[in-house]
């Protein structure tokens, strides 16, 4: 039939397509015709209406399904076309989903998507888990009737989901333990470390059945059966280094005794125990526990190594102590030199003269310049309480190491007022707040020291206020 030059009436093409659809022997011809004919020369709806009654009959073939899907695409019914493409396992299905934004239509086609391409299906399902929940995905995969390893698909999905969000599939962590044991045992131990949502007893039963020893040790440790876990390490794994690490992590003295008890009758393990417990146990204590007459392989070499390691450790400690003492002495000398520095209390008018008189000495000018900055920012030649220059009052001056200076009378009056206010605050806080007991104890200790000295300790008002 011509499709142009001349172009027939729409009904002519529609009648031809319906005729092909009614005979199963022509379904392949129908599919090729639908793909080759321009969609503008006929209406797809009449043809769809003629094919739909055959959906659940024996005359329905894969070619007719694909032709119907093509007609749905022409009619703009992309979700119905997706359903047929999924059943037919078309390789271009994922591109079809992206092209027409059909993520909402994947609810009932999880198994088909996984069978078609699990590497693309898993990220798709996880990315759109707000549209199709993990519960729905797991349900479809567990109840699948098709002949495929849906448990493996479930393992891939739950593993990727756990990596994206460890808590999203927490209801299925018991299943995941079994899936890891079946398909990826190496990933089971990291999963057991990371998850808190699996049943310990069930996980231990699975690991025992699969003879996963390190996983058994970890689960027994979490269950509190440390001695049983230690027995698995020594008797089944035979790894003394791991046994020592396990006991060290448990921080239990009784477990050390249990470790020695289980190894003491095994000569090779006693030797390995001597090698790996340096720094945790006294080797002499282990040696004294060894029964008389027990031959330990390479005992001399191991004892020499223990003594050498001990000497090295002792030498390092002495070296560190010497460095620490030298640092302390150097810092004390530096502190003493800093404390001996003079403090400039001159007025602001005298500062330029000080600078000009010492320009010939670069080191002195640098020190004065630093002191000028401190004086300008911390009071200069004025009292930090009354702000009068020191020169206009014939009163003694007290200067602190922080470069703040005060008239003696101003500081004494301020200290007396501050002590009285502290006593009032302390009495009120004792009645109101119990959380300040430690702070009050420190204050009482300072008051006792002042009482012993016979006079209140002078403090810089500005620094004390800022610190409090």
TrEMBL record:
Gene3D superfamilies: Tetratricopeptide repeat domain. CHCR repeats lie at residues 125-272. Coiled coil: none annotated. GO terms for biological process: cellular response to starvation; endosomal vesicle fusion; macroautophagy; protein targeting to vacuole. It holds the Pfam family zf-RING_Vps41. Belongs to the VPS41 family. It comes from Arachis hypogaea (Peanut). The keyword Repeat applies. One of its GO terms (cellular component) is late endosome. Keywords: Protein transport, Repeat, Transport, WD repeat. Residues 421-433 have a biased composition (Basic and acidic residues). Residues 347-367, 415-434 are annotated as: Disordered. Required for vacuolar assembly and vacuolar traffic. This is Vacuolar protein sorting-associated protein 41 homolog. Residues 383-463 form the RING-type domain. PROSITE patterns: CHCR (PS50236). InterPro entries: Clathrin_H-chain/VPS_repeat, TPR-like_helical_dom_sf, Vps41/Vps8, Znf_RING, Znf_RING_Vps41.
